[in-house]
Design a protein that fits this description.
The chain is an alpha+beta fold. It has helices at 78-85, 121-134, 186-198, 212-227, 247-259, 298-307, 310-313; strands spanning 7-13, 16-24, 48-49, 56-57, 64-69, 72-76, 91-99, 108-116, 136-144, 147-156, 159-165, 230-232, 282-284. The longest helix is centred in the last third of the chain and has 16 residues, at 212-227.
Length: 316
């Protein structure tokens, strides 16, 4: 699937404006998610309850507020929140160029890709080439969703990366940990350097690392599905809006319904609404399930789990 831009922006430095599109550079897919269910396997709903009344508050009845003192809030309407957000700027204003190595990665927050928009190809390529040649990156300001960000724009082999940076007050200092200094002898340092030399590599290859813990959990899930009891959460079937129907048959059925002969009226509850019985989950032996297609990851996962050290698999 082709990447979809999340914003159209302008990268500005001097009198040069570069129209760019913003794309997410990362996606979170590492965690294995487990759903919270009732003991019979049915789904559960999360609700918000008022502390003062104990009643459930629907989302449509909620408002946003800022706590300026303990248990004291100032409330904002959706219009007021929108007005504050409208201060967002579509311009990424470059304020300085600094050596790329001068930005400590501890300040790195979320990363995005920048790609040239219409009529932005030439200035985009020029800016990237100039930063690569100078060994410098750009520091810029960018306002979005009610917050002003300090961002780094750096040139990589295939284009430009926009890196949100944390402010100084958002990063803790190692000095706060009171780490006790210790003397290191020349002999100890020499041995440590020898060890570093033995396992040194020329570059970082992200594909060389696999999440072994995730692989172990996924293999256990596949084994559970294949050999254990599975609880299927049943749901009431809903008519599909994309179903292809015969127009004449639909008209005849509609006429029949109007006369009260084609379909029986739904059972009525005491409140005048159709009485819907909640769907119940049923326990289904794994052998009674339809044949499950092999999970593409399973063979590779099992190989990785088998090859993993025993202590890795025994951590949890």
């Amino acid at each position: 699937m082709a990447a979809r831009s999340i914003a159209s922006l302008t990268l500005s430095f001097g009198l040069v404006n570069v129209p760019v599109k913003l794309y997410s550079a990362t996606e979170s897919s590492s965690a294995v998610s487990f759903k919270m269910l009732a003991k019979d396997g049915s789904r559960v709903k999360q609700q918000y309850v008022s502390e003062s009344t104990g009643k459930v508050v629907e989302r449509a009845e909620m408002v946003k507020g800022y706590e300026f003192e303990k248990d004291r809030f100032v409330l904002f309407t959706p219009e007021e929140l929108k007005a504050m957000d409208e201060a967002a700027s579509h311009v990424i204003e470059i304020v300085a160029f600094v050596p790329e190595a001068s930005v400590d990665p501890i300040y790195y927050d979320r990363a995005y890709f920048l790609a040239p928009d219409k009529r932005g190809g030439k200035p985009y390529a020029l800016l990237g080439a100039a930063m690569r040649e100078s060994g410098r990156c750009a520091l810029a300001r960018w306002t979005s969703k009610g917050k002003q960000y300090v961002v780094q724009v750096r040139a990589v082999e295939d284009g430009l990366v926009l890196q949100q940076l944390l402010y100084a007050d958002e990063v803790r200092s190692l000095k706060d940990l009171d780490i006790e200094p210790a003397d290191v002898s020349p002999a100890e340092l020499k041995l440590a350097l020898q060890l570093i030399d033995q396992i040194s590599q020329d570059e970082y290859d992200p594909h060389a690392f696999k999440d072994e813990e995730k692989g172990r959990i996924l293999a256990a899930i596949d084994a559970k599905i294949a050999g254990k009891q599975v609880v299927a959460s049943a749901r009431a079937e809903e008519p599909s809006s994309g179903q292809v129907i015969d127009l004449m048959e639909a008209l005849r059925a509609s006429i029949g319904q109007k006369g009260g002969k084609a379909a029986a009226a739904p059972a009525k509850a005491s409140n005048g609404k159709a009485d819907k019985q909640p769907a119940k989950a049923e326990a289904i032996p794994a052998g009674a399930l339809k044949e499950r297609k092999p999970v593409k990851r399973a063979p590779k996962v099992l190989e990785e789990v088998a090859a993993a050290p025993a202590r890795t698999r025994a951590r949890k």
